[in-house]
Amino acid sequence: MSSSPFVQFASAVFSARTHLCHHLFPSALLLLLLALPARAADRVTITYWRPTYDVERDATVRMIRDFEAKYPHIRINMVPTSSYEEKIKTALAGGVGPDIMAVDGPLIAFYAYQGALIPLDRYYTPEGKADLIPASLEEITWNGHLWTGPLNNSSIAVYYNEAMFERAGIVPPRMADRAWTWEQFVAQIKRVMEANRAGAWQPWGLMFGIGINEFAAYAEMPWLWQTGGQVMRPDGLRATGYLDSPASVRGLTTFQHLFRVDRVAPVEEITEGFVTGKAATVISGPWSIPFYKDVYPNFKYGIMPLPRDMKQVTPCGSWHMAVTSQSRHPDEAWRFIDWMTGIEGAKQWYRETRNLPARQSTYDAFPDLSAYPMRIFADQVRFTARPRPVTPVYPIVTDAVAQAFQSAAYGQPPAEVLTKAARRIDEETAYEQAAEAGRQMPRWLIVIAGLLAVLSAGVAGVRLRRYLRARTTRYRVHDVLWGYGLVAPAVCGIAVFVVIPMLFALYLSFHHPYVLRPQARMAFVGWANYQQLFGDPLFWKSLLNSAYFTVVVVPIQTTVALGLALLVREKIKGVAVFRSAFFVPVVTAMVVVAIIWRLLYNVNAGVFNGLLVRFGVPKQLFLASATQAMPSVIAMCIWKSCGFFMLIFLAGLQAIPEELYDAAKVDGAGRWHRFRHITLPLLNPAMLFTLVITSMDAMKLFGPIFIITNGGPLHATTVIVYYIYKAMFLFLKVGYAAAMAFVLFGIILTLTLVQMRVLRREAVY
């Protein structure tokens, strides 16, 4: 029976639809799936790390949005982070660095030498390079290559209190080419100090921080340059003959006179000294203009150019953007850097942030850069600026220079401190050059180390076997094996997270690894790290500081803790409140404690000096004094920790039977005899624990130093662990830091064994 035409048509349609479903749709879906990975592969994600700063972060976000709109196949992932230097170094060392990293100007050669950056010469156009101001071009050039795109630049000038200068009838210069000499500056601010005297009180003329930090070194180097001195040879490989030259000594002497002869500047920190009228002037950069506008809108101030000596030289240098050697997309990374730092990008960046530009075209495009007060900074950057030394060892340079200036401010001879600083820089440069030519670890040494490891494992195995065979019954052997099985997970954890890292650190102590080049071989230097260590005056200074801290803290803290334990043991009303109060500092974070005590120690606004003045005692410098800084830290640490050891002693006291005291009373023993002949002997276990733990903690002191003193002043609080931290994270001397760590390990181990040997004999369990 034949189908009807309608049935034949419907069958044909159904057959065609089935054909489409079975063949065409799967083919289209397959093509779509194949196309999606291709599009995803074309999309590139660039990671950009930079320090946290709200204004610049928001400006960067807006410029990223515009960039991604123009280049939709490139996505920018910006990661603003605090503690930037430590984190970026750790990421690069781990091989997980970003595509683009922010670089502070003076560290460009340091990172380039470490192999963390790629040169950008092939990306720069002649127009883009020629548009950079000379100081910025000099700063980004090292070893014949261009390494970064300069995001902005900087300069410093003198901010002055208008009301204080008006009382003295003095009008400072407002043009960079009319700057006062330092002699004129000192003479004028002395007049200002006298005009604003109120009875016995007189304000300071200049507030200038002399800490050990990058801004201090940045602001201090002009004193050397202005008298014809230098920090290093132009190639950045030698400081002797330059940093300690007669011209440099003259510049540092001028700086020293501000503190020691003219006495117009204090060595201590003055909280809000400028805005409160405690200081007539302060040295700062253009970044302070929006700060004063937002925080102190009613404060009236003016700006004068940085004073000069034989010639006018000012510092410069700011943040840059660089492509890391770990970037998988350097071309796209440069495209974004050029967007941010190129001729047009620099103009938008200035509109967004008001940071000083690094390009001449930006200065020409904005009239406010030719008007007061920005013209002072702009003219200094373009005509009198000099970048900090372009050298691979700059972290050592900035630390040595800042230390030299701080030492001079405290009265040490300028020639002496500059000679020490130059010698330290040259020793570091020589060490780097020797390490660069280093060799691989000799095979015979590897074989000997392997044989020693096998021999040690064999001896341990034999001793374990003898130990097990010494068990007389099968049951006891089974117990021993069961016990070892139970502790095996903990032993494995200790091996993985403690023993193996320690062995690797020991291996590192004989090398000089370039940690920012994860794929590069480590240079074997043998005993060089240890030889340099024992010839390093700062190592011995830090070790003596740690010993001083330990010798003072251990007996005092132990005595105070024991005294508190005896006090709170008494059965009196409200004793639980005292126990809690004494223990509160223990559970308070060290950061909080350190910040609070730093405020208490403040010279001008601290509670301690307020109490001293009330009782007729002169103000003390505390943390700003080379002799008082360590005792101040000791007092804080004892207050923080004695509550913990109070509990240890309290537990020991409560374990002593009362019958012993009752019997002693019956025999006529007094309070002292009961303490001497009952309490102390039975407290020996707690005493041993307290002394061992306190000694180890004292030798490992780090937190308070890092937070409140940074090792200063004059290295008075630089302890061994803080020096290890600086060598590791600031100077990237990983092998050197590992060598110091093992020396410290040996000292602590020896001290602990001696304590255990001496005190354990008397312990009563």
Account of the 3D structure:
By secondary structure, this protein is of the alpha/beta class. Helices cover about 60% and strands about 10% of the residues. The protein contains 31 helices and 15 strands. Strand 4 and strand 5 form a beta hairpin.
List keywords for this structure.
disordered N terminus, 765 residues, five-stranded mixed β-sheet, alpha/beta, four-stranded mixed β-sheet, single chain
Structural class: alpha/beta
- Nearest-integer average pLDDT: 87
Biggest sheet record: 5 strands, mixed
Radius of gyration: 34 Å
Give the helix level as a range of percent: 55-70%
Strand order of the largest sheet: 2-1-3-12-6
* Oligomerization: single chain
Poorly predicted residue ranges:
1-41
Put the structure in a nutshell:
The protein has 765 residues and is α/β, with parallel strands linked by helices.
